[in-house]
Design brief:
Layout: E1 7-8, H1 9-16, H2 20-29, E2 35-37, E3 40-43, H3 45-64
Antiparallel strand pairs: 1-3, 2-3
Helix pairs in contact: 1-2
Length: about 90
């Protein structure tokens, strides 16, 4: 049995529906294992499967908690509260 060929940043970008640069940024941040062949990033199949298993559970919860941006959100565990600023009115020119 042949070993699985590693993925390129372009093929992962197509698989995940994002840009190849986003895939490379994940690699540089250490979110997914990779190796380089010259300047090209390559991702082993096992690393891709691990990453997808780690992130697939958060998709449903993120969709369920999507904010419309019209209400205040409670202070999170990090102590940051996000609110929309009221719209500014321009001063008339004199």
């Amino acid at each position: 049995m042949e070993p699985a060929r590693p993925f390129s940043a372009d093929t992962l970008a197509e698989r995940w529906g994002c840009s190849a640069e986003s895939v490379r940024q994940l690699a540089r941040q250490g979110a997914i294992r990779y190796f380089r062949v010259g300047k090209m990033y390559r991702f082993p199949k096992s690393a891709v499967e691990e990453f997808e298993c780690q992130t697939s559970g958060s998709d449903a919860s993120a969709a369920a908690s999507a904010s419309t941006g019209t209400t205040r959100t409670p202070v999170s565990e990090s102590g940051i509260s996000l609110t929309h600023a009221p719209e500014r009115k321009r001063k008339p020119r004199q």
